[in-house]
Amino acid sequence: MTTLDLYPLLADVDVAVLGAGSAGATAAIAAARSGARTVLLDRSGFLGGTSTAVLDTFYGFYTPGEQSLKIVGGIGDDVVAELRRLGPVVTRPNTFGAGTGITYHPDHLKVAWERLVVAAGAQVVLHASVQDARFANGRLETVLVATKAGLRRIRARVFIDATGDADVCHFAGIPYELAGAEAPAQTLTTTFRMCNVDSVRRREIPRSTLKQLMADAASSGRYNLPRLEGSDHITPVEGVTATIMTRLPSTSNVEGKVVNATDPQLLTQAELAGREQALEYVRFLQDFVPGYERAQLATLSTYIGVRETRRVYGEYRLNREDVLAGRQFDDQIGLCGAPLEDHHDGADTQWEYLPEGSAVGIPFRTLIPAGTENLLVAGRCFSATHDAHASVRSMAQCMAMGEAAGTAAAMATGTRRSIPELDVDLLRNQLRSAGACLEIDAAVASNSATASSR
Predict the structure, then answer these.
(1) For residue 222, is pLDDT > 80?
(2) Secondary structure in 3-state letters for the chain
(3) What pLDDT score does 96 carry?
(4) Has residue 452 got a pLDDT over 50?
(5) Confidence class of residue 440 from pLDDT cuts 50, 70 and 90?
(6) Residue ranges covered by each domain of the chain
(7) What would the pLDDT profile of 250-292 be if each residue is shown by its tens digit?
(8) Which of 323, 392, 402, 414 has the greatest number of beta carbons closer than 10 A?
(9) Per-residue model confidence (pLDDT) at position 451
(10) What is the pLDDT of residue 450?
(11) Confidence at residue 342, expressed as pLDDT on a 0 to 100 scale
């Protein structure tokens, strides 16, 4: 017996999914639909992670370019269908040409995730965060989580780390790259929404003019605007816009050691500074941008948006060359056509696009931490370099990874095989039968971008 065994047991299941963002919630749906006894845990009081707490748009369902291709389906389609049952959904071209976005009401999405997860038969535990893990001889045995009732144990035959920050892997001692230690880490963003916006007047101002207005405001010395670009876009609610404008550093050097947004002090300071910065951009919009003269702040994001912190070393590591060449893999379980979107320090963002009509495959091996038998990762902690991650971290791709991880986890419990021993062709066939898009040649041309963007 170890110290972890002294804590009460919260769940003993086939599949435990830690983290309920786009990747984790989808993984739980897939595993439970496949017949596995599944538990889904999250630190928040709702499901969805970034999709409900920070953003209001799914990117990655479609490729950019003249002819948009729909490259993510399966459970992702079920999520969008449930959103449409709850209220209006806006399909619009992304401001920076990164492909068609699906904009929704974040509170509707909370309910959509809950309905789908519960209907699939998964158990949900909210307000629970990973605190420790026991890993031995290639197998993850126990995960310790903090709850309102105290510390509790989770046992499972297969675990899925969908925490975004690779918390399970971190506490289990499984190797990963700390974003910022080897290559610059993507910056942090506090998002916000404005209400009472005159959308007709706002639509008359192109993106180039918005950028110039930001530069004018910053040069006046009266506004602290570290990022001199960004976007505001329409939402399903009339007169309400959502923004991605703020920029906070995601790393710091503490006593000669790089820390990022997994460090509690850095994260706390970023949360505080992000809200202050958001108010500066609110003031800028009200003072400079037509259509915002009578607008008011509606909401700030529940917490700050984090793009990357830890990325595991998997059985394969997706890289920059793979992405920009649109490389295909024998074991791919999803596709991504999004550009490399690098939110680096400074006033702008760097974009590098894939060839027209192409998409890179996401290898199943990038979801398997090297040297593990019963552990998968899904979402932004998957195995990729900084550059590749800047493309494949979009929420639709997180859903594709989650569906693959949940399906694979259920297969492993049903066949009593380790994850690396699974028949990948069988996994891919099962994903196809559920509506997943695995090959670019099978992607469907789409004319879905019916609403204007700003």
Answers:
(1) yes
(2) CCHHHHCCEEEEEEEEEECCEHHHHHHHHHHHHCCCCEEEECCCCCCECHHHHCCCEECCCECCCCCEEECCCCHHHHHHHHHHHHCCCEEEECCCCCCEEEECCHHHHHHHHHHHHHHHCCEEECCCEEEEEEEECCEEEEEEEEECCEEEEEEEEEEEECCCCCHHHHHHCCCEEECCCCCCCCCEECCEEEECCCHHHHHCCCHHHHHHHHHHHHHCCCCCCCCCCCEEEECCCCCCEEEECCCECCCEEECCEEECCCCHHHHHHHHHHHHHHHHHHHHHHHHHCCCCCCCEEEEECCCCECCCCEEECECCCECHHHHHCCCCCCCEEEEECCCEEECCCCCCCEEECCCCCCCEEEEHHHHCECCCCCEEECCCCCCECHHHHHHHCCHHHHHHHHHHHHHHHHHHHHHCCCHHHCCHHHHHHHHHHCCCCCCHHHCEEECCCCCCCC
(3) 64
(4) no
(5) confident
(6) 3-48+56-183+308-446, 192-300
(7) 999 888 888 999 999 999 999 999 999 999 999 999 999 999 9
(8) 402
(9) 37
(10) 38
(11) 76
- 3-48+56-183+308-446: CATH topology is FAD/NAD(P)-binding domain (3.50.50)
